[in-house]
Structure formats: C-alpha cells, structure tokens
User: Fold Phenylalanine 4-monooxygenase from Streptosporangium fragile.
Amino acid sequence: MQRQHDHTTDTAYKTRRDEIATLSADLTPDDPIPVVEYTEREHELWRMVCAELATRHRTAAAAEYLESAEQLAIPLDHVPQLRDVSERMKSISGFRFQAAPALVPLKEFCGGLASSRFHSTQYLRHPGTPFYTEDPDMLHDLVGHGNILASDRFARLYRLAGEAASRVRSTEALQFVGKVFWFTLECGVVRERGERKAYGATLLSSCGELDHFRDTEIRPLNVASLVDVEYVISTYQSILFEADSMDQVEDTVSAFWSSCDDDSISALHHA
Ligand SMILES: [Fe+2]
Assistant:
C-alpha cells in the first residue's frame, strides 16, 4: 500500500521537524543528547501511537521483544527524552543512543552500531500518518529498535551487523550486509508456539505493518536466498523471512555477519 500523506508539503510540520533536527546536526558521538521541549500535540501523538502499538504487540510481538521492552520501560504517556532512554538502555545492555538529525548514511549508521551506538531521530512522524512512516522517526527508533536493544542477544547482533558493515569495502557487499539487516532486524518474523511473531523494528513500530504482516508472502530465513530479493522501504513489505526460532535468527545472522567479507558476498551473488 502506498503512503497516503506527503509530509513535505506541510510547512508547519517541516519547520518543526527541521527545528528538532538542527539540535543534533553537528554533534559528535560523545556530545550529550540534546533536550527537546515537546509540544502537547506531540505528546498526544506519542500516547496514541504507543497505545495502538501496545495493543498489537501483545499478540504480534516476539516474546524476547516483549521482555526486553519491559526492562527498558519506555514511557507510553509522554514523549521521553532520548538521553533518559539512552542512559537506561546503556545500564541494561551496554547500547546507547546517538542523536541524529535524519536518516544516517549506511556506513556511518553501521559504524555506530559497531561501537554500541544507535543513531536515533528526535522528531515524530507526521500526525496525518500516525500508523506508518517511510522515514525513521523517534517512535520507530525507540519503540522498534530501542525496545529490543535492551536484550543482550540483540545488542550483540546489532554490533555484529555494524562490524560487518565496517569490514567490507565494496558497495555490493555493504548493500548486502544492509539487506540482511533489513530482512531480519527491520522486518524479521519468527515462529513461536506455532504462531508468526514479529521481532523487526519496522514491523513493530507500524500499526499498518502489524495489521498486514500475517498476510504477506513468507519465506524461510536463509542468507543466500536474499540475493535475488528486492526490497523497497516506501510501501508495506510484500515478502518476509521467517525463522523457526530466535536461536535460528541468532545463529543465521551471527554466522553471516561475523565472517562475511567482500569475497564471500561476491561469491553469493555470482553462484
Ligand atoms: Fe530502522
């Protein structure tokens, strides 16, 4: 399904988003995360989206995500300060947030992951599309990624993805490392007690995706089979990759990310 709303034509929204983005425009990883004064409308949007997501998470989210989210305890009734969530996450799994003004280039984003840093935006999606956003926003970054980054297992997998992306040199290899990230940590599903559950951040931060992901074409998780699959981030996903268990997710992606290099990824593409 295509996006219903183009936020770039809403000047007031764009101004507010730019205002928040400017706060983190020139920060180094060690600078403190800026404090943002959120408006009552933004708190209201956060509350509404979090309530709708929480209802769906109870039946659609993987158990490990729910346990990790309980540990992190992100406030649902107001937009939290990113620095507060970051401190709590760091004390649980060692991962922390770095404020980012917008989507970060893949190499830079992954460089952060290798150092246990996750780039997070601080602005919210357009209120006209509360249940889906093409670009990452703070709901996606915190509710989707942050919640599972309080799990030691997932903190390790995110780090391994970052190390793999930092290790490879060719564009083809970097994009493939990113593709494996996309189909697992962004859009991954897993079978739990005979049911399909989501653990990927893109699914878990979008009511629209959560309402559709059980009807999507499902393929078994296998790194080599991702070579021929195209993906777009501007629509709901049409193909998802499902693992038999969270252990299989871990084994599959950690084996790939901890050993891949330009040659092994090139061999996969030209097999
Ligand atoms: Fe994401």
